[in-house]
Design goal:
Bound molecules: calcium ion
Structural class: alpha+beta
Helix content: 10-25%
Number of domains: 2
Oligomer: single chain
Distance between the termini: 59 Å
Strand content: 35-45%
Largest sheet: 8 strands, antiparallel
Number of strands: 8
Number of helices: 1
Amino acid sequence: MRNTKGKTAIVLFLLAILSIQGCVYIPTEVVEKPKVNLALGAAATASSVYLHFTPDRAVDGDKEDQNSRWLSEPGYPQWISVDLGQRETIHMVALYFFVNEHGFVYYNTEYEIQYSEEGTWKTILHVEDNQLQAPVHSFPPVVAQQIRILFHKGIPQADLVRLYELEIY
Ligand SMILES: [Ca+2]
């Protein structure tokens, strides 16, 4: 009888430890798991570069510093391409267009999200009427290593591409 009580006490004690660990551990592991931005720090190239605003500045994770953006030369089309280093399954692209100190957004209205397959660019999504500073585009999963955004048009003030950041999920 005393042994049974002792075993019960030990089991309850272990359950208590497990439940405490569960309370502490599970929320950090399961809840709010951050999404992995595959473009972050990836190799980026572009159709053109204005001044020192190179395309790597659009994959550095900074969406606020005015120096942390890619600028193309004026005129369209323009593109930015990212090499993910290996084939990845992607289903989402987020863009962050430049906002000046007065809150004016220099956004592009028409662009294509593309991936490279056997040396050919294929279009995943053709966006024609964007009006957002930070559009997020979801699409059926695609397996790819090279992703490109091909810009066709912007608002009149966006005579060149001004892109703070490109994220790929
Ligand atoms: Ca940036």
